[in-house]
């Protein structure tokens, strides 16, 4: 999944760098929640986090949908 995301968004023009994180389990070794967009595997699928690491106001990650 990480390679597919990288290939899809490589070269995307944006006002700042966008960081993605993909973790294969809930131990979250890749620190996906601290990236702009994070994906973490769970027993039932994936949790998507829109984290807001970049920008003027870094924020606590929000899980969509909450689990």
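^ structure tokens above, recovered residues below v
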């Amino acid at each position: 999944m990480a390679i597919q995301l990288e290939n899809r968004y490589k070269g995307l023009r944006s006002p700042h760098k966008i960081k993605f994180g993909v973790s294969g389990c809930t131990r979250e070794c890749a620190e996906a929640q601290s990236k702009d967009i994070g994906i973490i595997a769970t027993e039932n699928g994936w949790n998507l986090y829109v984290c807001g690491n970049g920008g003027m106001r870094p924020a606590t990650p929000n899980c969509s949908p909450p689990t």
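Residues 2-7+17-64 form a domain with the Sulfite Reductase Hemoprotein; domain 1 fold (CATH 3.30.413.10).
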